[in-house]
């Protein structure tokens, strides 16, 4: 009798489990997923992603449409490739897609997701965003640092003038400019100048940042197939751990230096962004305490975010202009008319230089620094365009395809700044045809600074020099290939010869 009871229980239990599995299966079958290529076992669709992921995904979007689903190893990835899909993800359902997937780069190079970019949506991130908007990137604070941007730009222009007639690599000057500006604004001094008390040499400082840009943008297999993550097949995690030790040693030194100054002076007034962060960390009223690791993570974000993107955008702009010399002619005519030949362009002049603004917008259209923006993650199940997107799905906004859509842009593959002249479209996240800085809650918080540096740098490079490609290379021969990483820079740096076009006293010579 007892064995019969157990048998009955066993049958009932098996029946219940079977029913549950069947109902789950039936529910799953009812899900309407976005179209996409059939995934392979284990790797999913990773076999379709080449060394330039944005171009691979662009090709797939042409086939499967404005919303498609890919499988990257163990994770579904939904890609939005139209204005409507971008608006749905970044505006209509922004809150649902406000989190980030967890990656090795976020874990090992940003103090376990303690920075602004990779932290998960919640009280900590909301507080970080508020700090950025109210404290770090407020109009008043950025204005207070304008003298730094002016000094560093003039120093670079003077250096370039001293090299007139010789072949120069433009990237070297642009990266030094953005690095010096950001170092002084964030850290309070330049780390590209070697001094006796330097914790790192200028070469080591630049190398660390170059490595950070590279490792932050790699396609790490362990991020897609977690159960083989421990094998570190590509060796990226090992490199990330080694880099994080170097960065931490540097950032500890920076924080110690700042705390020493703050402790020595009564009623110390914050002079740079690290000072501001340390003051915020001391604030007992913060909703979430800002730990020392958080200060270091934010500091690293500010340095990395502010250096690469502006230099890359200006280099692309000059490359496009050298392929199309009539753009240079039109730009310099505007500059001569508005600015004259006896002074440099100031930030306040930019609204009076609509063609310069148009060149910047067209460069950001053709060469978006983040062609798929930073990935987001669905915080709950949702439907978009009639398709089901499950909680935990990774979501990409494919701006590379949007800015090449012939329905939106006439001759989308042609560099044509005139398309923006007289148009109200801007890059501040409200016009979904053009989203170089993203949109919504997770839009780049420092976009206003980036825009100031890019516009002023480009305007003065065009104003101050005549340009030609080094080695008698013709414009149509210029290689315009890119590489993929945290940003999307030129594969081959731009080599040029410049000659001053203003009186020499303007350069400080």
UniProtKB/TrEMBL annotation:
The keyword Transcription does not apply. PROSITE patterns: CYTOCHROME_P450. Heme binds at residue 444. Gene3D superfamilies: Cytochrome P450. GO terms for molecular function: heme binding; iron ion binding; monooxygenase activity; oxidoreductase activity, acting on paired donors, with incorporation or reduction of molecular oxygen. InterPro entries: Cyt_P450, Cyt_P450_CS, Cyt_P450_E_grp-I, Cyt_P450_sf. GO terms for biological process: secondary metabolite biosynthetic process. The keyword Ribonucleoprotein does not apply. It comes from the Eukaryota. The chain crosses the membrane at residues 6-23. Keywords: Heme, Iron, Membrane, Metal-binding, Monooxygenase, Oxidoreductase, Transmembrane, Transmembrane helix. It is an enzyme of class 1 (oxidoreductase). Coiled coil: none annotated. Pfam families: p450. Its cofactor is heme. Its EC number is 1.14.13.21. Belongs to the cytochrome P450 family. This is Flavonoid 3'-hydroxylase 1.
């Amino acid at each position: 009798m007892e064995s019969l009871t157990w048998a009955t229980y066993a049958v009932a239990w098996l029946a219940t489990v079977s029913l549950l599995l069947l109902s789950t299966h039936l529910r799953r079958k009812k899900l309407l997923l976005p179209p996409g290529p059939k995934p392979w076992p284990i790797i999913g669709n990773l076999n379709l992603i080449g060394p330039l992921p944005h171009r691979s995904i662009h090709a797939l979007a042409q086939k499967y449409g404005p919303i498609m689903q890919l499988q990257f190893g163990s994770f579904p990835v939904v890609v939005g490739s139209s204005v409507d899909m971008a608006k749905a993800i970044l505006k209509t359902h922004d809150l649902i897609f406000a989190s980030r997937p967890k990656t090795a780069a976020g874990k090992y190079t940003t103090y376990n997701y303690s920075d602004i970019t990779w932290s998960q949506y919640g009280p900590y991130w909301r507080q970080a965003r508020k700090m950025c908007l109210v404290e770090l990137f407020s109009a008043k604070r950025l204005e207070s640092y304008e003298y730094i941007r002016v000094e560093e730009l003039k120093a670079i222009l003077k250096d370039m003038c001293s090299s007139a007639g010789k072949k120069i690599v433009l990237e070297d000057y642009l990266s030094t400019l953005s690095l010096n500006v950001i170092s002084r604004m964030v850290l309070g001094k330049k780390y590209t100048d070697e001094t006796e008390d330097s914790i790192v040499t200028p070469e080591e400082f630049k190398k660390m940042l170059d490595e950070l840009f590279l490792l932050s943008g790699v396609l790490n297999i362990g991020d897609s197939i977690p159960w083989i993550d421990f094998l570190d097949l590509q060796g990226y995690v090992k490199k990330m751990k080694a880099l994080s030790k170097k960065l931490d040693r540097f950032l500890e030194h920076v924080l110690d230096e700042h705390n020493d100054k703050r402790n020595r002076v009564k009623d110390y007034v914050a002079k740079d962004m690290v000072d501001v962060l340390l003051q915020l960390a001391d604030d007992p009223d913060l909703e979430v305490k800002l730990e020392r690791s958080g200060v270091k993570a934010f500091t690293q974000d500010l340095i990395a975010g502010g250096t690469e993107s502006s230099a890359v955008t200006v280099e692309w702009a000059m490359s496009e202009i050298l392929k199309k010399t009539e753009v240079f002619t039109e730009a310099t005519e505007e500059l001569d008319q508005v600015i004259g030949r006896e002074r440099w362009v100031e930030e306040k002049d930019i609204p009076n230089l609509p063609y310069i603004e148009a060149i910047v917008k067209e460069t950001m259209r053709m060469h978006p620094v983040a062609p798929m923006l930073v990935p987001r993650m669905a915080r709950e199940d949702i439907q978009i365009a009639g398709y089901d997107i499950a909680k935990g799905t990774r979501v990409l906004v494919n701006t590379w395809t949007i800015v090449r859509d012939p329905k939106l842009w006439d001759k989308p593959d042609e560099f044509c700044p005139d398309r923006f002249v007289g148009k109200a479209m801007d890059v501040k996240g409200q016009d979904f045809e053009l989203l170089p800085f993203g949109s919504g809650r997770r839009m780049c918080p420092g976009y206003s600074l980036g825009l100031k540096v890019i516009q002023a740098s480009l305007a003065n490079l065009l104003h101050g020099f005549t340009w030609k490609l080094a080695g008698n290379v013709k414009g149509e021969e210029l290689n315009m290939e890119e590489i993929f990483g945290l940003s999307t820079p030129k594969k081959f740096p731009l080599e040029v010869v410049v000659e001053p076009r203003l009186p020499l006293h303007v350069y400080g010579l």
